[in-house]
């Protein structure tokens, strides 16, 4: 069974199961021009992809955990927001030791989230609204509850079942010392010792993340075969693509050496090994075998931009997350450099860039951009780091215009369209993230960006679940109703109103569909300072006319002084006023921490 997107699917804009009322005016605009984007085989090059963290999006059955029924109720909201695709974080059977990134069965939906039939329905319903589905595949490790791992433990040392993982005797006479001193992504050792059936201490197994996430041995043919089969399983069910979890980590040096102090390219024993490329070439062949080719999106955390780009060669992944941009501080020089090095690194492999402001692992932009140090690093996360949310919100609004105007695809993490802050005062006993526990409580963990969404002003869980249902799995903070979808839908000045407009304008503006991009160092003949980012999209020739539909200029003021805007510019969008385009007096100056899209 293969769900292909047909033109008929793409234009149909209604569905009986979609519960979110009438489309907004912006949504109508988005809908009007949705057809060509949806029908294009290159949709992924400039798509807007919305990340659903299933557990926290909407709770359809009222048990306190988000589920597929909840997503289905709000597909209309996502259509109106103007997204092209949804990326679902893992929805498979899982003990949820790492929020679902510990998969026990890749072909079944966790009963807390729904059923396989429901997932198929959801994919089809989204497709009817012109929204594609990207699912999350976790190839580096499985859950310790996965059949393969349970069989490996039971079969004992030297068994073929153990060869699918990295079981190893310990060092020292009694085998009580860890095989390597590799450090886990969640801190601590990457090895856990097993217990033999007779109760004696046994071999150790490798887990780059938590002990509940044993690493697979990608040198084993079963592992490769199984994953290609999993891809087909979901592609056959209509998934338009996959997000590849921890994509640069799968392959390990079988000699298990220690990590060198300064590993050169390809020399790290468990990150960015050259053998990875062959795996992704195999996956690309699977993806390309479908009539509408499926898309591979890599979670590739690599500082080396040239090595990063190698994953995006034409026969490997289509795109990969641009974490460099995401981690940069709110600083014009730093962001300009990131944009430029991103575009330079992607050009030789002809892959489009991606623009990411956040995801389910990192501090929400509103909170991060309000900090004195607004860069992001996992190792720097601490309780009690001050932030100025008003500044953060202004900057996050400007960052929305910046990121949506850059050439490539755009990722939007659920709740960022509401301007939600990181929840930094979760009760300690509510926290579930292993990153928190494995740091001995020093790292607050990632739950602060995973708090269930507020849909309505009131109600038991602000509309996350039905009224009278269970409390959400993470408590919502005081005042959550004021930032709810309901509250923001009635407010022209809200972050939601801004995002709807940004996405609708992006869809409607041909200048933003291609890849043409040029920095500007002056505006209307006035030189711009170092604190301003300005660039032109569309026709980037010197003599291109601003009154032409083919040109759009984005200006972002990251300084502390106003920047003059050309008097004759038409303001399409303004991050700092409700709707710049609707005001009779277009602004002549751009205030600090704001951005505009101009036709000039
Ligand atoms: C990725 C996921 C993260 C998860 C980790 C291990 O980085 O985004 O949430 O903890 O992989 O699977």
UniProtKB/TrEMBL annotation:
Keywords: Hydrolase. Residues 1-24 are annotated as: Disordered. Coiled coil: none annotated. Residues 51-450 form the Glycosyl hydrolase family 13 catalytic domain. One of its GO terms (biological process) is oligosaccharide catabolic process. Pfam families: Alpha-amylase, DUF3459. InterPro entries: DUF3459, GH, GH13_cat_dom, O16G_dom_2. Residues 1-11 have a biased composition (Acidic residues). GO terms for molecular function: alpha-amylase activity. Belongs to the glycosyl hydrolase 13 family. This is Glycoside hydrolase family 13 protein. It comes from Cellulosimicrobium protaetiae. The lineage of its organism: Bacteria, Bacillati, Actinomycetota, Actinomycetes, Micrococcales.
